[in-house]
Amino acid sequence: MRVLALDPGLTRCGIAVVEGVPGRAPIMIAVDTLRTPVSAELADRLLELDTHFTVWLDRYHPDAVAIERVFSQANVASAMATAQAAAVLMVAASRRGIPVTQHTPSEVKAAVTGNGRADKSQVGTMVARLLGLTSIPAPADSADALALGICHIWRSPVRTAAVAQ
User: Fold this and answer.
1) Nearest to 1 by CA among 115, 110, 151
2) In the chain, helix, strand, coil percent, each to 5?
3) Are 125 and 136 spatial neighbours (Cβ–Cβ below 8 Å)?
4) What is the C-alpha separation between 135 and 4, in angstroms, rounded?
5) Alpha-carbon separation of residue 129 from 32, 94, 135, 150 (angstroms)
6) Which residues have a catalytic role annotated?
7) How far apart are CA 50 and CA 48, in angstroms?
8) Are 81 and 118 in contact (CB under 8 A)?
9) Which terminus of the chain is less hemmed in, N or C, by CB atoms within 10 Å?
10) What is the number of structural domains in the chain?
11) Domain limits for position 57
């Protein structure tokens, strides 16, 4: 399964492509952090994310898209911007008929570290270890996108169905 995974954000959006099958170590195909200028208008920033994401869809032909579920404890403005970015990315994938799944941050952390409350350094360390990388991917948005891709491969309904066959 090839997964395009996104840690959504309006200023920084982690994006990664991870491939894997049940029972084997996942493989990193690509990783980056998309950025939009804070000074730009909201609509222009969302369009820029859509444009970048479309390039990744065309280049990597994923079987699925995994997006971190947006949540907010205090900063509503930040959560709104993140939700808007996530929505643009969901529409771009859905337009192509690519299934989109959202995973909670604690689900992703539990999948890669065994602890749903792991901190960013623990997640980055385990991502590097699981993918056989010599260093922790930076910035953290990139490591988070890779963790999300790994989580999706290990926990997705498609994976469960494949194991059952």
Assistant:
1) 151
2) 50, 20, 30
3) yes
4) 21
5) 18, 32, 9, 12
6) 7, 68, 141
7) 5
8) no
9) C
10) 1
11) 2-164
| CA nearest neighbour of 148 among 108, 115, 113 | 108
Distance CA 66, CA 16 (A): 10
Total length of the chain = 165
- What is the full per-residue pLDDT of the chain (165 aa) written as tens digits? 999 999 999 999 999 999 998 668 999 999 999 999 999 999 999 999 999 999 999 999 999 999 999 876 667 878 888 999 999 999 999 999 999 999 999 999 999 999 999 999 999 999 999 999 999 999 999 999 999 999 999 987 544 344 333
Q: Which residue has the tokens 């602890």?
A: 115
